């Protein structure tokens, strides 16, 4: 039985995501200080990854991977209503999720050393990839000559899979464990332990394009590719555990185009010591090219990298924000509030810090401000 129900119309002016209104039945409190829409039936443990369905589908779906070993799917209605559709299980925490380009399949990567393919039409889930250690990243690659699944693992390999065959099409040895990755054809970027960054070109067949010396001094946590004005991938934003993001062009015409900025920091109790938090996620707006960051400080921020300005910072949640994503039409910013163990078990309160996924209208807030001439 297909999990796809009746299709709703695309997001428009009447959508709660297109305006500033939110449904009346909002829970108030520090777990949702921005009064954003809460996804019903959220995961039971910390959320590691989220992904919206591609724009090829008339209806918007959101999937999440979480530490309760589950992959969940919700339908997101125009009025902000969220409908749980289905879920699938791994035998270990799910660290990453992604969609196929046609929106019929969801892929998940897990600590059980497997990646699975969930066919949403048949609601069947099968293993399509295997590593010797937990799989940290999973990305669908859609090239003119081929399609495949790219998985990055703590076994220090990057593998490319034809989902119809049990053995990988290609295996690339990494210098260290894969910590983060992103794909935007024809570019892939992989961040590894030891602060390694490797850019791959995916045309014809994947191969290394260049290694880049990290602009950040601390461990990489997340990476997101950005486009130029013509829609071609041209660089990436890299977030670290030290409250800092690097904007890096792969082939910078001017070295000054590359820069780093501090974020997800707060002044300590005596204002002389700064509390520094990890950057847990970065998402670029598909239309404006601006970006969102989320951190262990429990805040999200919106940025304009070209004007090098901050557009907005949220109120502080009562727990870290562990993941974020923006839908392909650029209307919805989804962020997950869940404990990331950055302050150890003594700072975890399971009664007050229940995982939640929140949805916010973002098309206006992520617009670049009119730049002064």
Structural key phrases:
373 residues, mainly beta, 4-stranded antiparallel beta sheet, 30 strands, 47% strand
Quote the beta fraction.
over 45%
Determine the N-to-C terminus distance: 57 Å
Shape: globular
Uncertain stretches: 6-29
Tally of individual helices: 0
| Widest β-sheet, arrangement of strands | 1-30-29-28
Order of helices and strands: EEEEEEEEEEEEEEEEEEEEEEEEEEEEEE
Which structural class do the helices and strands define? mainly beta
- The beta-strand count equals 30
Radius of gyration in whole Å, from Cα?
A: 20 Å
Helix content: under 10%
Largest sheet report: 4 strands, antiparallel
Let me know the average pLDDT: 91
Summarize the structure in words.
With 373 residues, the protein is mostly beta strands. It contains no helices and 30 strands. The strands form eight sheets. The protein has a four-stranded antiparallel sheet with strand order 1-30-29-28, with no helix packed on it. Strands 2-3-4-5 form a four-stranded antiparallel sheet, with no helix packed on it. Strands 6-7-8-9 form a four-stranded antiparallel sheet, with no helix packed on it. Strand 6 and strand 7 form a beta hairpin. It is globular. About 6% of the residues have low confidence.
């Amino acid at each position: 039985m297909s999990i796809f129900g009746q299709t709703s119309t695309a997001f428009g002016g009447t959508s709660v995501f297109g305006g500033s209104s939110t449904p009346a039945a909002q829970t108030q409190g520090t777990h949702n200080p921005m009064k954003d829409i809460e996804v019903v039936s959220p995961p039971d443990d910390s959320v590691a990854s989220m992904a919206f369905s591609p724009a090829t589908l008339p209806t918007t779906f959101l999937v999440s991977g979480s530490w309760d070993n589950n992959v969940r799917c919700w339908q997101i209605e125009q009025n902000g209503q969220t409908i749980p559709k289905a879920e699938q299980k791994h035998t270990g925490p799910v660290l990453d999720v992604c969609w196929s380009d046609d929106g019929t399949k969801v892929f998940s990567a897990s600590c059980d050393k497997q990646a699975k393919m969930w066919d949403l039409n048949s609601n069947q889930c099968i293993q399509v990839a295997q590593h010797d250690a937990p799989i940290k990243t999973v990305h669908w690659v859609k090239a003119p000559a081929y399609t495949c699944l790219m998985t990055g693992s703590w076994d220090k390999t990057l593998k490319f899979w034809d989902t119809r065959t049990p053995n990988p099409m290609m295996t690339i040895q990494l210098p260290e464990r894969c910590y983060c990755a992103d794909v935007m054809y024809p570019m892939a970027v992989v961040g590894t332990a030891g602060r390694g960054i490797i850019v791959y070109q995916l045309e014809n067949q994947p191969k290394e394009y260049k290694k880049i010396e990290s602009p950040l001094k601390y461990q990489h946590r997340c990476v997101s590719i950005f486009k130029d004005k013509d829609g071609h991938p041209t660089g990436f934003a890299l977030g670290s555990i030290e409250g800092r993001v690097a904007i890096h062009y792969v082939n910078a015409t001017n070295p000054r185009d590359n820069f780093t900025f501090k974020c997800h920091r707060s002044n300590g109790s005596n204002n002389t010591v700064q509390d520094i938090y990890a950057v847990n996620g970065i998402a670029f707006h598909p239309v404006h090219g601006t970006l969102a960051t989320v951190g262990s400080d429990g805040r999200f921020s919106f940025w304009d990298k070209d004007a090098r300005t901050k557009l907005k910072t949220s109120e502080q949640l009562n727990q870290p924000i562990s993941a974020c994503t923006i839908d392909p039409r650029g209307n919805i910013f989804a962020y997950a509030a869940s404990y990331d163990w950055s302050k150890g078990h003594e700072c975890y309160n399971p009664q007050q810090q229940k995982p939640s996924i929140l949805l916010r209208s973002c098309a206006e807030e992520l617009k670049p401000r009119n730049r002064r001439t």
